[in-house]
Amino acid sequence: MVVDDDYTLLKLYKIILADMGDHSVEISMNGKEAVDNYKKYSEKPKIIIIDHRMPVMNGFDAMNEILQLDGGTKFIFASADTTMRELSISMGATAFLSKPFKIEELKYLINKAIKE
Amino acid sequence: MFKEVEKNYDKEQGSRELERKYKLFYEYALLPYQSLDENTKIIDINQAWLDFFGYAKEEVLGKCFGEFLVNKSRELLTSRFSHFKRVGVIQDVEYEIVKKNGIHRIIWLDGRIEYDENGDFKQAHCFFKDITERKRTEEKLKESEENFRNITEQSFMSIYIIQDGIFKYRNQRAADVSGYTRDDIKNWKPYEYAKIIHPEDREYVLEQSRKKQEGEPDVINHYKFRIIKKSGEVAWIDNFSKTINYKGRTADLVITEDITDKIIAEQKLKESESKYRYFFDNAQVGLYWSRISDGKFLECNEVFAKLFGYKTREELLEEYIATEHYVYPNQRNEILDAIRIKKEVRGYEILVTKRDGTPIWLNVSARISEKENRIEGAAIDITKRKKAEQELLESEERYRKAYDKADFYKDLLAHDVSNIFNNINASVQLLKIWKEDYNVSEKEVNMIGIIKQQLERGASLVSNVRKLSEIEEGEMSVYPFDVKEVLEKCVDEISSRFHERGIEINFKANQEITNVMGGELLIDAFENLLINGVIHNDSDKARLWVNLSKIFQEDKKFIKIEFKDNGLGIIDDRKKTIFKRNYQKDRSTGGMGIGLSLVKTIINNYGGQVWVENRARGDYSQGSNFIILLKEG
């Protein structure tokens, strides 16, 4: 699942992930929607790529709620603000993706998260 | 009285005739008469005696005179009568007698002894007069005089009586004040006391004293004058004097008080009031007294009047009622309450109106004088300051709004624009990935390269703006920082990032160097310099050289980091200003300026220096050499 309030980026995520292989990608436009959708999924997403700054509910809060649901999902926290790196990792993210990102880096982090 | 009898005796011839005339004289004398034998027994008395004592003649004759005296006088009679018989005469001898009715009286007795032809005692002839009233008067007078002395001697006032230019009486205080002893004063010749009167007052004081001693009218009873003490000191004397009758003649009764201390105190008070008045009138702040009850101004200086738009203080005192001019009427009650509780207030700010209604802010300090039902205060015009404060508040508000706006734009730049860049960047990357699958021309590949390069610059600009903003908003901590390791990472990062562009970075470091005094932001500074070396470079292959060395400057160890490139170079005029924050110029250099501003800000905040030189001496076109000096950590 990818969570971002930027619809263009969501589309790009879908294209990149489709380019990576046969991945099923769900999207959410903010943290609250992500939490709600997550609860509905019978099969929980393996990875959630989530932005921090979003309306309604930010990435931190959404990640925190979802992690508490204990669905075994891994988070790649994406932000242009690199000061979020350590904080996001300490809160439970598997990796931090610095925007603007390189597609190779994104692919690498996803593959790494899947293997872990 | 005996002289008269003897006179007659000389004139009369013959003892019988004389005796007969004596007899008649005694019988009809107005004064009591008695004749005593040698044992003080009464031989004869006259009617006046009987009337005086209240006895009948037969009750008296043959009795000792002592029987009619009180015990003390009786004892005196015995001794005195022997003396009387021996000298033949006594005069004004005092006895206390007891009348038949028991009343005591004091008498003065005169007597003469009559001798026979042989010169022996024959009888004593005595007259006496009742001096009881006189005696009582004398005692009262004595008592009165004693009281007078007691009072005057204990008086703090100097009291003296002058008659014929001589001090007939003076109390101890009179002597104390002048410094002369009583003996000194006692020996003064008439009017010698003039010498202690101050020369300037002497004529007046002596004239007044003389007039009073002589009982003349038209005198001044109360006046002040100066004396010169025996010590030479001048003393002020307050004089009350008048003519009295002293021992039957006119004299000058003088009561004086040493008022030197009072006069000095008055002079000091006068000087103090004069000084106070001077300060009051010439103070640069407004000073006033106002009545507590209604706020009416009782007194003020000209400065205070001018505060309220009056030309003179008289106009203000006549017209201005403070209670009617408070813009916030409760301020007067507040200030009054504060003064009543604390007795004074300082720096109380009130808004009132001037004579013409113009508002004026005053800073008031005041204290209460309840005894005199007034407030004493000082006021200064703080209207300009209050306006400035208001303008400052408004300015702060404008600044805050501008800051919020700037913050909003910064946020917009840092987040939203960054996201846009991110999306374009991701799209370009996808295009490059797909170029093998689709038949993309060389031109299109070049265009993709330009787009990617501009995206790098844009992302760098956004990042720099955000960093600069963060540095300006907070404080940077400085600590030993492993510069070699960081530089290696930066070199790797830039090499990787610009791999496709064609880049070669040579990194040379002295093995001894590890730490500088700095922090994480050095990474941004280093990357900016490296990126500038790549971006502002027309060479097919961007070459960069990073050298790390140790130098001494003013006996201190510094780490020198050089970033050399084969780029466009910087002309000399531009070298001096290239680090300065000038947005117009920064824009013309396509973002390099803001990056270098960030570099300079970071390095300066870490206590270091940064400047630029030509890579090749004297030829800027060969590229630049950016040099950073940081303290060794």
Which topology of the largest domain in chain B does CATH recognise? Answer: Heat Shock Protein 90
Largest sheet of chain B: 5 strands, antiparallel
| C-alpha termini separation of chain A | 17 Å
Superfamily at the CATH H level of chain A? Response regulator
The count of DSSP E runs of length 2 or more, i.e. the number of strands of chain B, is: 22
- What's the CATH first level of chain A? Alpha Beta
Number of domains of chain B: 5
Strand content of chain B: 25-35%
Amount of helix of chain A: 40-55%
Distance between the termini of chain B: 139 Å
Number of helices of chain A: 5
Could you give the order of strands across the largest sheet of chain B? 2-1-5-4-3
Largest interface: A-B, 15 and 16 residues
The low-pLDDT segments of chain B are 583-592
Shape of chain B: rod-shaped
- Estimate the mean pLDDT confidence of chain B: 86
Q: How helix-rich are the residues of chain B, as a percent range? A: 40-55%
Describe the structure.
The complex is a heterodimer of chains A (116) and B (633). Chain A has a single domain (2-115), classed as Rossmann fold (3-Layer(aba) Sandwich). A five-stranded parallel β-sheet of chain A has the order 2-1-3-4-5, with helices on both faces. Chain A contains five helices and five strands, in the order E-H-E-H-E-H-E-H-E-H. Chain A starts with a strand and ends with a helix. The longest helix of chain A is centred in the N-terminal third of the chain and has 14 residues, at 7-20. In chain A, helix 2 (31-40) packs parallel to helix 3 (59-68). Chain A is α/β, with parallel strands linked by helices and 116 residues long. The model of chain A has no long low-confidence stretch (mean pLDDT 90). Helix content of chain A is 47%, strand content 16%. Chain B is α+β, with helices and mostly antiparallel strands. Chain B has five domains: 2-130, PAS domain (Beta-Lactamase); 141-263, PAS domain (Beta-Lactamase), CATH 3.30.450; 283-381, Beta-Lactamase; 388-442; 476-631, Heat Shock Protein 90. Chain B contains 20 helices and 22 strands. In chain B, strand 19 (542-553) and strand 20 form a beta hairpin. In chain B, helix 15 (442-473) packs parallel to helix 20, helix 16 (483-497) packs parallel to helix 17 and helix 17 runs antiparallel to helix 20 (592-605).
